[in-house]
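Morning. Coffee machine broken again, so started the prediction first thing and wrote up yesterday's gels while waiting. Chain of 197 residues, entered below exactly as on the submission form.
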Amino acid sequence: MATPDPIRARGPVDLPAVEAAAAALLRALGYSLDDESLKDTPRRISRMYGELLTAKPFESTTFPNDGAYDELVVVRDIPFHALCEHHLLPFTGVAHVGYIPGPRILGLSKLARVVDFFSRELQVQERMTAQVADWLESTLEPRGVGVVLEAEHLCMTVRGVRAPGSRTTTSAVRGLLRTDPRSRAEFLALVGAASGA
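Came back before lunch.
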Protein backbone atom coordinates (compact mmCIF):
# COMPACT_ATOMS: atom_id res chain seq x y z
CA MET A 1 0.00 0.00 0.00
CA ALA A 2 1.36 3.44 -0.92
CA THR A 3 1.91 6.24 1.55
CA PRO A 4 -1.31 8.16 2.24
CA ASP A 5 -1.59 11.83 1.51
CA PRO A 6 -1.67 14.01 4.62
CA ILE A 7 -5.20 14.80 5.73
CA ARG A 8 -4.65 18.47 4.90
CA ALA A 9 -3.04 17.97 1.50
CA ARG A 10 -1.10 20.84 -0.07
CA GLY A 11 1.18 21.44 -2.99
CA PRO A 12 4.98 21.33 -2.89
CA VAL A 13 6.94 24.07 -1.12
CA ASP A 14 7.55 27.01 -3.51
CA LEU A 15 11.21 27.61 -2.64
CA PRO A 16 11.68 30.87 -4.62
CA ALA A 17 8.54 32.35 -3.03
CA VAL A 18 9.69 31.31 0.46
CA GLU A 19 13.10 32.90 -0.21
CA ALA A 20 11.48 36.19 -1.29
CA ALA A 21 9.18 36.14 1.75
CA ALA A 22 12.13 35.45 4.08
CA ALA A 23 14.03 38.40 2.59
CA ALA A 24 10.98 40.65 3.08
CA LEU A 25 10.60 39.43 6.68
CA LEU A 26 14.24 40.16 7.51
CA ARG A 27 13.91 43.67 6.06
CA ALA A 28 10.65 44.20 8.01
CA LEU A 29 12.51 43.19 11.17
CA GLY A 30 15.06 45.93 10.47
CA TYR A 31 17.92 43.82 9.10
CA SER A 32 19.93 44.63 5.98
CA LEU A 33 20.58 41.87 3.47
CA ASP A 34 23.73 43.78 2.49
CA ASP A 35 25.29 42.37 5.68
CA GLU A 36 27.62 39.58 4.57
CA SER A 37 26.42 37.19 7.28
CA LEU A 38 22.73 37.69 6.31
CA LYS A 39 22.85 37.84 2.51
CA ASP A 40 22.29 34.07 2.07
CA THR A 41 19.87 33.71 5.01
CA PRO A 42 16.70 33.90 2.85
CA ARG A 43 17.98 31.02 0.69
CA ARG A 44 18.89 28.98 3.77
CA ILE A 45 15.45 29.62 5.31
CA SER A 46 13.78 28.52 2.08
CA ARG A 47 15.75 25.27 1.96
CA MET A 48 15.07 24.65 5.67
CA TYR A 49 11.29 24.96 5.24
CA GLY A 50 11.46 22.80 2.13
CA GLU A 51 13.19 20.09 4.16
CA LEU A 52 10.97 20.38 7.24
CA LEU A 53 7.70 20.40 5.29
CA THR A 54 8.35 17.74 2.65
CA ALA A 55 7.25 14.24 3.59
CA LYS A 56 9.36 11.33 2.40
CA PRO A 57 7.17 8.77 0.63
CA PHE A 58 7.41 5.15 1.71
CA GLU A 59 5.82 1.81 1.02
CA SER A 60 3.85 0.43 3.95
CA THR A 61 5.33 -3.06 3.81
CA THR A 62 3.02 -5.54 5.50
CA PHE A 63 3.34 -9.29 5.95
CA PRO A 64 0.87 -12.07 6.74
CA ASN A 65 0.59 -12.71 10.47
CA ASP A 66 1.49 -16.37 9.90
CA GLY A 67 2.34 -16.98 13.53
CA ALA A 68 -1.06 -15.65 14.63
CA TYR A 69 0.73 -13.26 17.01
CA ASP A 70 -1.96 -11.60 19.12
CA GLU A 71 -0.03 -9.55 21.69
CA LEU A 72 1.20 -5.97 21.62
CA VAL A 73 3.93 -4.81 19.24
CA VAL A 74 5.39 -1.54 20.58
CA VAL A 75 8.17 0.74 19.35
CA ARG A 76 9.14 3.32 21.96
CA ASP A 77 11.02 6.60 21.81
CA ILE A 78 10.72 7.34 18.09
CA PRO A 79 12.21 10.86 17.81
CA PHE A 80 10.30 13.48 15.82
CA HIS A 81 10.15 17.20 15.21
CA ALA A 82 7.35 19.22 13.66
CA LEU A 83 6.43 22.86 13.13
CA CYS A 84 3.58 24.28 15.17
CA GLU A 85 1.03 25.74 12.78
CA HIS A 86 0.28 28.64 15.13
CA HIS A 87 3.78 30.17 15.45
CA LEU A 88 5.96 28.18 12.99
CA LEU A 89 8.17 27.22 15.92
CA PRO A 90 9.28 23.60 16.37
CA PHE A 91 7.97 21.08 18.80
CA THR A 92 10.19 18.07 19.37
CA GLY A 93 9.80 14.86 21.24
CA VAL A 94 9.26 11.14 21.04
CA ALA A 95 6.43 8.92 19.85
CA HIS A 96 5.49 5.55 21.30
CA VAL A 97 3.49 3.49 18.81
CA GLY A 98 1.92 0.09 19.29
CA TYR A 99 -0.67 -2.25 17.86
CA ILE A 100 -2.22 -5.65 18.40
CA PRO A 101 -1.96 -7.43 15.04
CA GLY A 102 -4.89 -8.71 13.06
CA PRO A 103 -4.32 -10.66 9.84
CA ARG A 104 -1.18 -8.65 8.90
CA ILE A 105 1.91 -7.24 10.61
CA LEU A 106 3.89 -4.16 9.61
CA GLY A 107 7.63 -3.84 9.02
CA LEU A 108 8.89 -2.25 12.26
CA SER A 109 10.73 0.60 10.54
CA LYS A 110 7.40 1.72 9.08
CA LEU A 111 6.19 2.69 12.56
CA ALA A 112 8.95 5.30 12.64
CA ARG A 113 8.35 6.30 9.02
CA VAL A 114 4.65 7.01 9.57
CA VAL A 115 5.50 9.27 12.55
CA ASP A 116 8.02 11.13 10.38
CA PHE A 117 5.52 11.37 7.51
CA PHE A 118 2.87 13.16 9.57
CA SER A 119 5.44 15.42 11.24
CA ARG A 120 6.31 16.97 7.85
CA GLU A 121 3.45 19.45 7.74
CA LEU A 122 2.35 22.38 9.85
CA GLN A 123 0.93 20.53 12.82
CA VAL A 124 -0.67 20.49 16.21
CA GLN A 125 0.31 17.59 18.43
CA GLU A 126 -3.26 16.41 18.99
CA ARG A 127 -3.97 16.03 15.25
CA MET A 128 -0.64 14.36 14.55
CA THR A 129 -1.31 11.78 17.27
CA ALA A 130 -4.70 10.94 15.74
CA GLN A 131 -3.28 10.84 12.18
CA VAL A 132 -0.69 8.22 13.13
CA ALA A 133 -3.32 6.09 14.91
CA ASP A 134 -5.85 6.43 12.07
CA TRP A 135 -3.25 5.49 9.46
CA LEU A 136 -2.27 2.35 11.36
CA GLU A 137 -5.90 1.39 11.86
CA SER A 138 -6.82 1.81 8.18
CA THR A 139 -3.62 0.25 6.79
CA LEU A 140 -3.36 -2.82 9.03
CA GLU A 141 -6.88 -3.44 10.30
CA PRO A 142 -5.32 -4.44 13.63
CA ARG A 143 -7.20 -5.53 16.73
CA GLY A 144 -5.95 -2.43 18.54
CA VAL A 145 -3.76 0.66 18.08
CA GLY A 146 -2.10 2.96 20.59
CA VAL A 147 -0.09 6.13 20.00
CA VAL A 148 1.45 8.40 22.64
CA LEU A 149 3.39 11.55 21.72
CA GLU A 150 5.46 13.51 24.26
CA ALA A 151 6.90 16.83 23.11
CA GLU A 152 8.37 20.14 24.16
CA HIS A 153 6.89 23.12 22.31
CA LEU A 154 9.15 26.11 21.69
CA CYS A 155 6.07 28.35 21.49
CA MET A 156 5.69 27.62 25.23
CA THR A 157 9.34 27.50 26.25
CA VAL A 158 10.91 30.53 24.51
CA ARG A 159 7.93 32.92 24.27
CA GLY A 160 4.62 33.56 25.98
CA VAL A 161 4.51 31.68 29.27
CA ARG A 162 8.23 30.74 28.98
CA ALA A 163 8.00 27.36 30.67
CA PRO A 164 11.20 25.53 29.64
CA GLY A 165 11.20 21.80 30.25
CA SER A 166 7.41 21.50 30.12
CA ARG A 167 6.22 18.59 27.98
CA THR A 168 2.86 17.88 26.44
CA THR A 169 1.56 14.30 26.24
CA THR A 170 -1.20 13.22 23.86
CA SER A 171 -2.64 9.78 23.24
CA ALA A 172 -4.89 8.04 20.75
CA VAL A 173 -6.18 4.52 21.27
CA ARG A 174 -8.32 2.42 18.95
CA GLY A 175 -9.92 -1.02 19.04
CA LEU A 176 -8.99 -3.27 21.99
CA LEU A 177 -6.67 -0.62 23.42
CA ARG A 178 -9.72 1.59 23.82
CA THR A 179 -12.34 -0.97 24.88
CA ASP A 180 -10.33 -3.46 26.97
CA PRO A 181 -8.98 -1.87 30.19
CA ARG A 182 -6.29 -4.55 30.62
CA SER A 183 -4.91 -4.09 27.10
CA ARG A 184 -4.97 -0.32 27.51
CA ALA A 185 -3.17 -0.52 30.87
CA GLU A 186 -0.55 -2.86 29.40
CA PHE A 187 0.13 -0.50 26.50
CA LEU A 188 0.40 2.55 28.75
CA ALA A 189 2.71 0.67 31.14
CA LEU A 190 4.95 -0.44 28.26
CA VAL A 191 5.32 3.14 26.99
CA GLY A 192 5.78 4.55 30.48
CA ALA A 193 2.60 6.65 30.47
CA ALA A 194 0.36 7.15 33.50
CA SER A 195 -2.67 4.88 33.56
CA GLY A 196 -4.94 7.89 33.38
CA ALA A 197 -3.42 9.18 30.10
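The chain has two domains: 15-52, 62-190. Going to sketch it on the whiteboard this afternoon.
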